[in-house]
Amino acid sequence: METVSRFIPIAITLPAVVFGLWLLHWVLLGRHKDLASEKKFTRQLIMLGLTIVGVVSIALALPVVESTRNQVIAFIGLVVSGILAFSSTTLFANLMGGLMMRITQPFRAGDFIRVEEYFGRVAERGLMDTEIQTETRELIAIPNTFLISHPVSVIRSSGTIVSATLSLGYDLHHSQIEPLLTEAASSCGLEEPFVHIMKLGDTAVTYKVNGMLKETKSFLTAKSKLYAAVLDRLHRENIEIVSPAFMNQRPLRDGQQFIPQPVYAKSVTAATEAEKIVFDKAEEAEAREFERESLKAEIQKLEEELKLAEGDEKERLRYQLEGSKEALETLGKPADTSTDNP
Predict the structure, then answer these.
(1) Which segments of the chain does DSSP mark as H helices, in order?
(2) Does the first or last residue of the chain, that is N or C, have fewer Cβ atoms within 10 Å of its Cβ?
(3) Any stretches that span the bilayer, and where are they (predicted)?
C-alpha cells in the first residue's frame, strides 16, 4: 500500500501537466494559426515558460528519494542555463533590442530609415528583427541588435530635405547659378529651396540645391524630379553640365554645346509613382499601424462611455465595442504575401 501511495503524486501531476500544456497551447496558438509572427512569438515565449514550470512540477512529484529529486531538478536547471548561455548572444540580445525599441519608439512602420549601407521603409517591426523594404522592392530583415548598436537616421513624417549636387566650371558666376537652381527646386514642388556651395575644387565648383518635401512618401520621385528640373533649367539658359576636362579629351567645333533638344511628350498618360510599386509592403504596414492606433483610441473612448451609459445606449456601445475589438484582432493577422514568393 505504501508503494502505491508513492506513485499517486506523479499519477496526478503528469496527466494534469500534459493536459494543461495541451489546453494552453490550443488557447494561445492552436486556435490562432493565422496570427502575425510578432504576436505568435510572444505567445511561444509564454508557452516555453509554462513548459519549464510543468517539467519542474513533474520532477517534484517523482517517486524517488529527496536527494535524487534534487539531482533531477539541478539537471533541469543546468540544461536550461546552458540553453540560455549559448543563445544569449543572439536570441536574447535581439529580444532585448526589440523590447528597448518598443519603449524608445525611434521609428514606426512606414518610416524611411537609413542604417549603415541599408536604406528603405519599415515594413514590419518584430521582437527579433526589423524588416525594411528597399528601393529595389527587396525585403531585408535587420537584427535588432544591429539597429541598437548603430546610428539610425529616420526621415521625419512632417517633412524632409531633398537635395541634388552638381559641379560647374569657374567660368560661371555663382550669382547666376544659385537663382537658377532655386527656381528648379521650386518648379518640382519643393518648398523653401536654398543653395549651398559645397566645395571649391581644382577645376569646378560644387553646388548643392535643397528643398523641403512635405509628402515624404514620394521621396524617390521627388529626388528624380529635382534632377530633371535642374537639367531643364540650366540647359534652358545654355549652361552646360560637363566636366572641365571634356575639351581635353575630344576636340569640338567653336560654339558647339552639349545640350539636348527639348522633347515634348505626346502621351498624356499619368506617370507611375515609383513609391507605389517599390514600397507596397511598407505602405500596407503603415496603414495597418495607423488603423491599429485609431482602433485603440476608439476602444478606450467606448470603454469610458460604457461606464456612464444606461439602457439601450449601453447595449449599443457594448455592441460597437465588441466590433472594434474584433477589428483590432483582425489587424494582428499577417497580410497575404503569397504573390511575393519566388
Answers:
(1) 2-6, 8-25, 37-60, 66-87, 93-104, 144-149, 174-187, 219-236, 246-249, 274-278, 280-308, 311-331
(2) C
(3) 6-24, 45-65, 71-93
* pLDDT, tens digit (0-9, with 9 covering 90-100), for 40-59: 667 777 887 888 888 888 88
- Between 207 and 288, whose confidence is greater? 207
- Produce one character per residue of 148-166: b if its CB has 16 or more CB atoms within 10 Å, e if not: beeebeebebeebebbbeb
Class of the CATH-defined domain 160-246: alpha beta
Residue 247 has pLDDT above 70, yes or no: no
Q: Are 164 and 207 in contact (CB under 8 A)?
A: no
CATH of domain 112-154: 2.30.30
pTM of the shown model: 0.53
Neighbour count for residue 268 (Cβ, 10 Å): 5
Domain boundaries, the chain: 2-104, 112-154, 160-246
Same fold, 112-154 and 160-246: no
